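Q: Here's a chain of 389 amino acids. Please give me its 3D structure as C-alpha cells.
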Amino acid sequence: MAKKKIRMGMVGGGEGAFIGAIHRLAANLDGEIELVAGAFSSDPKRAKLSGENLGLAPERCYPNYIEMFASEAKLPVHDRIDFVAIVTPNHLHFPVAKCAIEAGFHVFSDKPATLTLQEAEDLSALLEKHSCLYGLTHTYNGYPMIKEARHRIANGELGAIRKVVVEYSQGWLADAKDNSGKQAAWRLDASQSGSSCCMGDIGVHAANLAEYVSGLSITALCADLNSLVAGRTLDDDGTVLLRFNNGAKGVLLASQIAVGEENNLRLRIYGEHASLDWSQMEPNSLWLRPHNAPALYLRAGVGSQSALTQAAMRTPAGHPEGYIEAFANLYKNFAAQIRAFQAGLPADNLSFDVPGIREAVRGMAFIEHTVAASRQDSKWHPFQIGHSE
C-alpha cells in the first residue's frame, strides 16, 4: 500500500505573497506533503481565488482560518488536514496557532512565533494541554553544512567555545522610499510586526543560529538598536553583545540598511583549539581552522560527514543546494515527526531536528530583551524566561 502524504492547510500566503510560495515549494520538494486546504488572505474573494489557482477544491478554499479549522475538524480523519502552515504577518501567528491547536491540528509557523513574549508563553502552556506538535521555520538550521558545524562542535573538535560572532546584513530597507513595499510595510508597523523590525525579522534568525550550532544558550545581552532611516519608529539596524551559559562572549550584528548587502548571514565560532566559519552566501562550504595548522575547506557531500549532514543533502557534491532545500529539510523533518506521532511513537522536536516551542519562546525573549536593553542605560540585561524554559 502506497504511503499516504501528510495533508497541509495554509493560512496566509495568497497570490503575491513571497513567503507563501516559498513554503509551498519547500513542502512539496520531497513528496511527503500535499497542500489540500487554505485560508490564503484576509480578503475572502482573494482567499478563494488564490486557492483555486493552486488547484485546490473550491470547498476547501476558506474565507478565514476560523471557518477552515471548524470545517476541517468535521471531515473524516483520513481526509482532513494534518497540520497548518502559518505564513501571515506576525500579529496573526498566535491567534491562528491557538485556533488550530484547540481544533486538534499540528502547527508549523513562520518565525517569530508570536507578537509578544507573553503570547509565546501562553502558546507553550496551551501545547502542554493539547496533543499537538509545533514547529518553527528557522530556515537556516536546515543547511547541511550548518548541521556539520553543529556536529563538529558537539563532538569537541573546537574545544570549549570562547567567542561567537554572527552577522545578518541586508540592504533592502536602506531608503525611506523602500517603506511602501508590501513586504516592508507590515514589518515597519508595530501593530503587525511587534516591538522590532530588524531584530524581529532577521536578528532572531542570527540568535537562533548561534545557539543551534554552538549548543550554548544566551544568558545576558547588551543592545544598541537604531532607526537610521528618518520617519521609522522601529529598528532597522542593531548591534548586540552576548553572554552564553558557558562563559563565552558573542557579538550579533543585524542590519537592513547595509547598502549593497543581499542576504549576508555569516556565523563564526571560536573555540580553544579551532574555529568554524560559514556563510549563507556560499552555503555548501564550511571552514574549519585549527590553531597553528592548515585550514580545512569542507564541502557538502565530500568526505566523511555526520548522519545529520548527509540526511540534509539531496544531490552529489558540486551540485549546489540552497534556501529552498534548507526550508524543505524543516518540512521533511516535521512530516517525519507527524508520522511518528500518528504511529504512537516518541515525537519530540529535538529527536527530529525541528525547531519547536522552546525556540519559539527563546526567540521572542531575545527580541523583547534586546529592545528593552537598548532603551536602558545599564550595560547588561539578564535574559530571562518564565515557566516554559
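Q: Can you summarize the key feature?
A: The mean pLDDT is 96.
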